[in-house]
């Protein structure tokens, strides 16, 4: 089976066709391969997830009781490991992957069904609780893992398993199926089916994805129908009884409050929303559906102009793990789940492919370098589920979670980073992210190797070198990032025709006959800048955030003599200093701190302002906070 091309305007390259050698990202990927994947595998073993695939659990056994969506954690780990194997052969890791695939194959039923919970805990109840039980969500992650394993290794051992599962879903949920009209309470299978279609060319997988998307939010509401047939609360009905008492209100939680083409606001559970919007963008690209594209563009505008944190985090509330109202962006209580920022990266990439516009990559870059990678510690062993933008000193990362969606999700994104750096069309290569790497791809009928050298994602220069067997005419598109005041381009040392102007899509377009050894030098003007929030964001009133390149910065109490929220910036911006967290510099300079000393401990309110004293400021990249123990932290700072 050969992956098919798609009508999307530009498509990412395969992970295996990109080698990352960036001074910032390459060490992170190596740590993922050498440490993080092993640690996550051990957690899958220790918590019973992998052992459950043996199907030996009984109510009388001492084994951990399987959970309905344990397979999703296994699948995301498999997907991450598969990407790693595609670029870095590792016999020990490959053996683990093969063992997990064999266990999944052994747990699969004759008809293709694969879910441990509904095989040994609740047999006979499959597909009766789509709202809560995550069967299709888990199936989607298994399908994604199968596609990743196939595209990275060329082997079909896992792909064979997941195509049998997908075939069952087509039979059950397609026209004439026993569960036709149903859809999952946690979106994921929709985007996975599009990936499977692209890998295999089987049209019915694309059709089923569209069936799921079209059914969502229609009346009579499927979740009401299945509740009536079942006669009992859903899986989470006892844990969250308000879902049963206010059922209509909670349709927004899983984006089933209206048909998707009529939706205008990003609502509900943030991760679910992102995965739905990913599928909508994919389907718009594959089918040319203008209604889906228009809905995606409306939802994107609403999210990024009213409900997104400066870090690219999304979802302000722990109550629903998602959105509440416009401009509600509290900092200390921000939920900003790691998976939600990852989902935003996924959706942004799809919107960029659909439209060819760099604005989507801007958001992707912001989320990736801040809201996503803050989710893992410097040693790759501890994780954030939530990512607040301020802390009183009680927040810290954890080794693992009962609901462990974030760690393997982060792993699969970091492992697949190469597919986000470049995008290709028939006669064009786009450089979307400034990450040192080498891509090998076909363009204009010619095999081209493009090497990108940088000093890191916030560096002020990128050097591109072309290697090609024969000259060919094609376009090289270089994104003009908003964090640089200017972009200067030279081709083989000369200013190109047109002076390197930026086009309407946000790229410098260099179209010419490219030959072996051609070079492009891109120079950025990278300064420390202050970011001001909309006056409608009450939490950020009178405050600014510091940023340089794609990175947002924060202040930690460990670096100052006052709580982080009591720091005030001076008139001059702090400047790049030391690089203790790697190639991304800290920002240092004079600032002010407010304190009343012991009086602040003895009383709450005072007639006069607190005394201010000058102090040396160190601001660290947001992604690196909480690597030196517990400490207060603040992204948004007052000005003196």
Automatic annotation (TrEMBL):
InterPro entries according to UniProt: 6-hairpin_glycosidase_sf, Beta-AFase-like, Beta-AFase-like_GH127_C, Beta-AFase-like_GH127_cat, Beta-AFase-like_GH127_middle
UniProt xrefs under SUPFAM superfamilies: Six-hairpin glycosidases
Enzyme class: hydrolase
Start and end residues of each Non-reducing end beta-L-arabinofuranosidase-like GH127 C-terminal domain: 528-638
Domain Non-reducing end beta-L-arabinofuranosidase-like GH127 catalytic: 17-418
EC number: 3.2.1.185
Pfam family membership, one: Glyco_hydro127C
GO molecular function: beta-L-arabinofuranosidase activity
Biological processes annotated in GO: carbohydrate metabolic process
Residue ranges of every copy of the Non-reducing end beta-L-arabinofuranosidase-like GH127 middle domain listed in the record: 429-525
Alphabetically ordered keywords of this record: Glycosidase, Hydrolase
Protein name: Non-reducing end beta-L-arabinofuranosidase
Organism in which the protein naturally occurs: Occultella aeris
Species lineage: Bacteria, Bacillati, Actinomycetota, Actinomycetes, Micrococcales
Name of the coding gene: hypBA1_1
